Amino acid sequence: MDKYPRIIVSYFFGHQSVPLGLSCVKALQSLGCEVLCFNSGINSPFEIYLFKPVNKIFRNLGLKEFNMSKSSLWNNQIFRQRLLEKAVAEFKPDILFILRGHGFDGEYLQYLKKKYEIKKIVGWWVKGPKWFDIMLFEAKFYDHFFCIHKEGYTIENKIEHLPAIALDNILYMPLHTGSDKQYTNDVVFVGSWTQRRQDIIEELTDYPISIYGHKWLRKNILNSKIRKMVKSDSIWGKELVQLYNKTKIAINISQWNTLNLSGLNLRVFDIPACGTFLITEYSDSIREYFKPGEEIETFQTTPELKDKLSYYLKNDNERERIASNGYKKVLSLGTYKDKMADLLNRVWFSC
Fold first, then answer.
1. Do the domain assignments include residue 217?
2. How far apart are CA 48 and CA 41, in angstroms?
3. Three-state DSSP state, 57
4. Which residues, listed in sequence order, are joined to residue 99 by a DSSP beta bridge?
5. Together in a domain, 40 and 62
6. 289-325 pLDDT, tens per residue?
7. What pairs with residue 299 in β-bridges?
8. pLDDT tens per residue across span 58-75
9. What is the helix (H) or strand (E) element at residue 116, kind and residue range?
10. Same structural domain, 153 and 40
11. Does one domain contain both 153 and 247?
12. What's the rounded Cα separation, in Å, for the pair 172 and 20?
């Protein structure tokens, strides 16, 4: 196969969506592919306005197993699959590329492939390690399947390692340099609420931290200290870039334990790409990209994080030197165009 393929990319698309899907789409287009975005996060109106409220009532009555939408033709899964088939029928892709994300029934994917003569169905597991059993089951229905983690599978599973992190140099960049740079935030944390993140943040309430992320207010109704730290339920796109550019220190806390599992999240590249000082949880994978203490900072325990926050808030020159080194380093690392070229070489041009 020597020509660039037509590709449908299935992931979350929209103003308040993780930009990974759009970064991949822009990269594929720059390589010469015709690409259609399919928003797998779209919800059935019946799910929103009927099934979800009714299911909640039954759960409150103690009937946790009740699920009104499970057998309905209008539940989210079937609704999305109908929309996906419509997109496939109209666009006629060579490749259906599914970032997981929301998944689809394996038998349904095989039906689409046969009926519409899709040459390759490609999956990419970009979720955390909690659902590896689901990943192993789903991977069997794909022609090629990739995972951001190094763990959770063997060569027999026919799953390949493909990290999600890369430089999106179209979105993330410094907006001000040198003496023009002005800060409005000492420390920020951007990310949706998880119990793991809550446990760490609770130890940092004496620090000037601003939190941006989904569910933080809802989960801290009675916790006034953390509620005062929460600035917004979400922040995306150019607003997020502006926030990073006006921040002295950005903290990155993963949804899973990075000491035991690989799979770095996107902020490891996004934050340094804005010229911002990053302090992130330590992972052996970090050393594949950065020198801790020279280009970014890391922590393994909450006391270590507290000590480094105190130090770098007081030592501006040292913090700015590391942030500058991190920016220079991330520019030398791979972009999403490089990553998508690698993916196409594995699934298309080598066939």
1. yes
2. 13
3. helix
4. 124
5. yes
6. 999 999 999 999 999 999 999 999 999 999 999 999 9
7. 281
8. 465 565 665 655 556 567
9. helix 106-116
10. yes
11. no
12. 12
- DSSP-assigned states of every residue in 42-56: ---HHIIIIIHHHHH
Cβ atoms 157, 151 nearer than 8 A = no
State the Cα–Cα distance between residues 250 and 262, nearest whole angstrom.
21
CA 307 to chain centre: 28
Nearest by Cα to 271 from 192, 210, 331, 327? 327
Give CA–CA dist 317/73, Å, rounded: 60
* 306 and 138 Cβ atoms separated by less than 8 Å: no
Name the pTM for this structure.
0.87
Q: Which amino acid is at 285?
A: S
CATH of residue 57 = 3.40.50.2000
Tokens of 21: 């899907």
Residue 172 maps to a domain: no
The rounded distance, in Å, linking the Cα atoms of 140 and 190 is: 35
d(CA 10, CA 92): 14
Same domain, 125 and 183: no
Q: Which amino acid is at 161?
A: H
Distance between first and last Cα of the chain:
7
DSSP H helices, the chain, are 20-31, 45-46, 52-60, 76-91, 106-116, 132-139, 195-201, 216-219, 224-229, 237-245, 267-273, 302-314, 316-331, 336-344
Q: What domain range is 115 assigned to?
A: 6-165+335-349
What is the number of domains present in the chain? 2
